[in-house]
Design a protein that fits this description.
Blueprint: H1 2-25, H2 39-78, H3 87-110, H4 113-143, E1 152-159, E2 173-181, H5 182-201, H6 204-221, H7 227-247, H8 250-257, E3 263-267, H9 270-273, E4 280-284, H10 286-305, H11 311-334, H12 341-359, H13 362-367, H14 376-400, H15 403-416
Antiparallel strand pairs: 1-2, 3-4
Helix pairs in contact: 2-6, 2-10, 2-11, 3-7, 3-8, 4-5, 4-6, 5-6, 6-10, 7-10, 7-12, 10-11, 10-12, 11-12
Length: 417
């Protein structure tokens, strides 16, 4: 254990001094250490990566608006506030991510890489089935002929109440409460086939299908409650990404060893080797989902303004695109892996803030919340209601007091004067 820690510290010192030298000696090698077949192949690979990064952000943001409305409706009915990322969560996220990343690095150094990847592959297999089913549900449902009936089902698994107790008792706990239809079963089968394909062959197309489904679901379902939380999260991960890529070999080692659909890939030698190509350009899902949930928040902010245009969403979406191009350009020039958030975070934070200053929306932008906290006015209203009820009870007591007692009290008051 101590040897591994010493190795990481030594690697930090080496990387801080060797980055320029590596760029000079790298020659025609790219970030994967392999020689790309042709310039056209590289252009195709990186262009496809950019498109695959933009699609989950765009469609995930659109779906997040619908999900936000569903959450608001449920909150109005049940009073249970939806789960969103708080500022404290955003502060802790880079620390927890660093612990997880270094933990994986230690596992790969100490234990067999193959055994760890077997466990991870099985875990992501089940996650991939659920993510793909959720993603494909509206698409496949629209393609299924109307002649096939949409039959609803309800799967529930209940714990309690104790034997002999009231069947309507509140002690019942729903461990599983899942509703689905025959269309959802079709989606599940399609997702299962794709996941099995990935499980057996680890083909890059199956990897991308699962990775894109994770990205879309992440942007749709992970909600930042306000802009301040988004700024804290992005700034924290900005430092995290720079340190683990430039400071150590931990990020690159884990990315190369980790065989799971947590990245999207595209072969640079597709034109020469076809579908059997093996020289891949890579983009991690974190570089898509983290900026994506912030861009989705801006779309919901645009909707809250009730204007015809979605200025903040589209402006930041274009800024993300430019930041991604800058990442690829610098990586190609210096022949060294780049922390994409180094370029994406300034683009995604600076654009909406500058735009808000120019349009006079800065206060609205900073004050916006997906699910606002209970306002003090409401609490004051409750206090006033309590005071009124108290006064009413006192008046009723006075009315109930006999006249003789009232006269006695008046006499006592005069004597006191």
């Amino acid at each position: 254990m101590a040897e591994v820690v010493e190795e990481v510290i030594a690697q930090i010192q080496e990387n801080l001094t060797a980055t320029v030298t590596e760029g000079e000696e790298g020659g025609a090698t790219n970030a994967t250490g392999k020689t790309p077949s042709t310039p056209e192949g590289m252009a195709l690979a990186y262009g496809t990566l950019v498109v695959m990064a933009l699609l989950p952000i765009f469609f995930g943001s659109m779906r997040s608006v619908k999900h936000h409305k569903e959450q608001s409706t449920a909150f109005a009915k049940t009073g249970e506030k939806p789960d969103t990322m708080s500022s404290k969560d955003a502060m802790m996220f880079p620390i927890m991510a660093s612990c997880a990343l270094f933990g994986l690095y230690m596992f790969f150094k100490i234990f067999s890489k193959d055994n760890i990847n077997y466990l991870l592959t099985g875990y992501f297999f089940f996650l991939g089935v659920m993510a793909l089913s959720h993603l494909l549900s509206p698409v496949i449902s629209s393609l299924i002929p109307a002649s096939i009936p949409k039959i609803p089902y309800h799967l529930s698994f209940v714990q309690g109440p104790p034997e002999g107790g009231d069947k309507k008792s509140k002690e019942k706990k729903y461990l599983i409460d899942y509703r689905f239809t025959t269309h959802d079963v079709v989606c599940f089968i399609v997702a299962l086939v794709i996941s099995v394909w990935y499980l057996l062959q680890k083909h890059w197309i199956a990897n991308n299908l699962l990775g894109l489904s994770f990205a879309v679901n992440g942007v749709e379902l992970l909600h930042l409650n306000n802009i301040a939380t988004g700024c804290i999260l992005l700034c924290g991960l900005f430092v995290y990404d720079i340190f683990w890529v430039f400071g150590t070999n931990v990020m690159v080692t884990v990315a190369k060893s980790f065989e799971a659909p947590i990245k999207i890939v595209f072969p640079q030698d597709l034109m020469t080797n076809g579908l059997a190509a093996s020289n891949f350009a890579v983009l991690g899902l974190g570089d898509i989902v983290i900026p994506g949930i912030f861009i989705a928040l801006l779309l919901r902010f645009d909707n809250s303004l009730k204007r015809k245009s979605k200025t903040y969403f589209y402006a930041t979406f274009i800024a993300y695109f430019i930041g991604l191009l800058a990442t690829i350009f610098v990586m190609h020039v210096f022949k060294h892996a780049q922390p994409a958030l180094l370029y994406l975070v300034p683009a995604c934070l600076g654009t909406p803030l500058l735009l808000a200053v120019l349009k006079g929306d800065l206060k609205k932008l900073l004050a916006y919340e997906d699910h606002p906290e209970e306002k003090p006015a409401k609490a004051a209203k409750n206090t006033n209601e309590k005071t009124k009820s108290k006064n009413t009870s006192e008046n009723s007591e006075e009315k109930a007091t006999p006249p003789a007692k009232k006269e006695t009290k008046k006499k006592e008051a005069k004597k006191a004067k």
